[in-house]
Amino acid sequence: MRSLRERLAALQPSPARPARPRPAGVPIDAVVPGRYLPGPVGEVFVAEWAREEDDVRRLLEHAPLAPSLFVPGAPTVHPEEIVFLDTETTGLAGGAGTHVFLVGLGHFEAGRLVVRQFFMRGPSEEPALLDALREALAPFRMLVSFNGRAFDWPLIEGRFIIHGYRPRFDFAHLDILHPARRVWRHRLASCTLSNLEASLFGVRRSEDVPGWLIPQMYFDYLRDGDARRLRPVFAHNHEDIATLVRLTDLLIRATAAPESVLDHPADRAGLALLLLNRGELMRGIDLLADALEDADQIDPALRRRAEVELSRWLKRLDRTPEAVPLWRKMCDRAARRRPLDLYPFEELAKYYEHQARDLVAAEAVVERALRLLDLHGEYHGRSSLLHRLERIRRKQARARARVRPRETGPTAGPVG
Questions:
Q1: How confident is the model at residue 392 (pLDDT cuts 50, 70, 90)?
Q2: Which domains does the chain have, with CATH numbers?
Q3: What residue spans of 98-207 are helical by DSSP H?
Q4: For residues 93 and 393, which has the higher predicted lDDT (pLDDT)?
């Protein structure tokens, strides 16, 4: 069975003979509303849709946007300066043999979301599609995609290069997949666009076409010219762009007011870790502390990571006493789990020994950790704990030795 690349190559016109005439069938303009856009290297079909739902238009309320949290160094932009991109291709693995046959671009115009879909009826129209795409993208200052940095945009750039184009686009690229994963991967089974759409917005497409089937549907169209089979492909692409807009709006609102937008503490913890990673320390610390108020609702792996990150940042900012209640809770929880997590015991012992100067409390923490290791039959970290315990006891002995001479020394006689 031939690969998709081989089948597409077979459909490419040979330079030695004229292009094969397009099959009769049902033309695309009889199936999808649109027009043929002429250009210097040929014409391309462009479908156009307008969306005016409130949840799609809500992004317009954020003006201007400062997306530097998601794209370090990105400029402040207005919603009308953003273009949302989604593509449909002849293969899902990428590579030089993969063609982009449908490019959907969404942008705001006159208070509504306008989606334009650039479609090539066959490989011979690829130069015309790319030329139209180059012109359509030029005015925008930010490109938003979903996994576009890894898939869509490299494919488009590769096709430009193959055809001798070297366009320079002056926009920042926000791949919304990465912040979405940071925020929601701890709670959701997957962070595919379709699962985010269903889980976050309650949207379930009743007649959607699965993405893996789309390349075959395009090859069938190339074979028989019946564009009716592509109607669900255009709808799929169109809805992906609308969801991309909703997701961008949700992330912007969550960043501005996480406590009111993100109901689940795991989502708030995910955003807090993103804030800390981007250097927004005060907001990240406060949000992480807020999320950990409902620690029992958070996955154990995320909860531990959040607690460790919060305590480390508090230490770095000379706010170590604020981490003490956190370490105590972690110790109590660790005592019920195997293997024993020694991190909170070690941190608490160091605090009592070196900062609070409470050697009795430090000794008690280390002894508790050693008892739990014995109870569990575990040996990891035991030698380090014993070394710490010996040092604490030596300090206690020296402290007692300094006190004893003053207690037992000669008493001064009465002043006569």
A1: very high
A2: 4-8+24-256 (3.30.420.10), 259-318 (no CATH), 320-402 (no CATH)
A3: 126-137, 153-162, 177-184, 193-201
A4: 393
